[in-house]
Please model this.
Amino acid sequence: MNEIKSVLKQHKQQLMKLPNVIGVGIGKKGSKQVIIVFVKQKMPESSLQPKDVVPKRLGRYETDVRSQVWVGRIHV
Model:
């Protein structure tokens, strides 16, 4: 888990500068750990400039672009 945190830390600032990106995190896709990139709205890659596309991998970890953020129960 520390390695993926380190990779995310190295790339977080770059990812957050991309248009449409609202957050990043670590999660699972199937049984694999992935770097999650949350966006306001998913768009076809073909409609984006190459410099605005979320990379498919960061280090040895895949990225997973998600357009919804699900929050569990919040206690205050």
Remarks:
- The CA atoms of residues 27 and 47 lie 26 Å apart.
- The first helix runs from residue 2 to 16.
- The mean pLDDT is 92.
